[in-house]
Amino acid sequence: MATNKFWKKKELSSLEQQVGLALTQIEGTITEVKNLRLSSVVDFTTKINAKKQVYLVFIPYPCLTIYNKISQKLLPELEKRVKATILVVAKRTIESKWVKKHRSQTRPNSRTLTTVYDGLLEDLISPSIILGRRTRVRVDGTKFYRIFLDESDQKDLESRLESIKDVYKILTTRDLEFEFRRDDTFYQKKGAKKVAQK
């Protein structure tokens, strides 16, 4: 039953079976989960010395649009059933600009290191959005990135931020610092109810 939720994978680990079974149970309440597939599940608890279990779920890139539509409903349900912090990331590949099959071939922008790293960060903080980012350099010469998030998502994200920082550091070797601030732009997030402006 759990193997149906994984893309091109026959043998599953016990952790992957547990997450796959939880997803099949959620299908009854959230119907869009039927189209969602997973690539793999990795346990990051020991790597980041977390107090609570932290699982990183990789999904195929074509399933990212499905996940983004249902992430607000899906993540709390999945965390409740698995009893762990769950972070979801699309599987992306970085290509070297020197590897070419033909000399006129150019690398797509979506396969560059910067774009892949930015995409990983957006996936990790989903369903929130990034309002701004700054690159800062410490006195000793090391870099860190300050990420500004929407103040309205603070309650949902605050408990996950430490694990997001640590997992992102392992995946990309980049240091992050998060700040919450009010979004002063006049657009609305997808799925939000329209409020009459005075």
From TrEMBL:
The keyword Disulfide bond appears for this protein: no
GO molecular function terms attached to this record: structural constituent of ribosome
Carries keyword Repeat? Answer: no
Organism's domain of life? Eukaryota
- Any single Pfam family the record assigns to this protein: Ribosomal_S7e
Which GO biological process entries does UniProt record here? ribosomal small subunit biogenesis; rRNA processing; translation
Question: GO cellular component terms?
Answer: 90S preribosome; cytosolic small ribosomal subunit; small-subunit processome
Per UniProt, the keywords (alphabetical) are: Ribonucleoprotein, Ribosomal protein
Q: Which family does it belong to?
A: Belongs to the eukaryotic ribosomal protein eS7 family.
What is the recorded name of this protein? 40S ribosomal protein S7
